[in-house]
Amino acid sequence: MSDEGVDRIISHIEAVAEKEISELLLKARDEADRMKRAARDKADRQTERILSDGKRAASLEGQRIIAETKIDVRRKRMGAQEEAIAASFEGAKKALEELAEDGRRDNFVYQDIMFNLIASASEIVAGNKLELVFNQRDSRTFNKHLLGELTAFVRKRTGRDISLAITDETIQCLGGVVVKDVERQVEVDHTLETKLDRLRESVRVDVAKILFGDRV
Q1: Are 85 and 205 in contact (CB under 8 A)?
Q2: pTM of the entire structure?
């Protein structure tokens, strides 16, 4: 083969090679662009997801903070209400103590209250032979004459032939009485502290409304 023929063959091979190389380069460039776009899209999606997750987390955190703040405010308000309610009952207890000590406070007469407490307890028990337990002060106050008045009052109130006796036993209390049914071995605690404690649970909501209105 002549040198000319060899040169033509080499030129042809080079031309084909250049074309293939160009096509390969083009494909490589297209693939690189595709991969770059895919990477950019993936990065964008990840960025959006991170931002979305961040917004959601921030929203949840914000909601959590708001909820905790509301709970804390409500807890503090309830604590303040409970303190005020407790203070109001302490005030009531102090007023009862003054009433029992002095015998009268405002329009209330301690003797009248005692008569009603004893009559009320006598209506609860079924027996007619009752014993009265006072604190030391009231035990000295209820002499024979006053006991006679009390017995007449209780009999009229209950419609029963009830006899009353004061025991030598005394109790520690602000005032009031424990009435014992001797025949049936039962007793009714109408001391002022017990009455106030019972009243506390039944009227605490009403007291809260008086103190705080609708904010209970």
Answers
A1: no
A2: 0.60
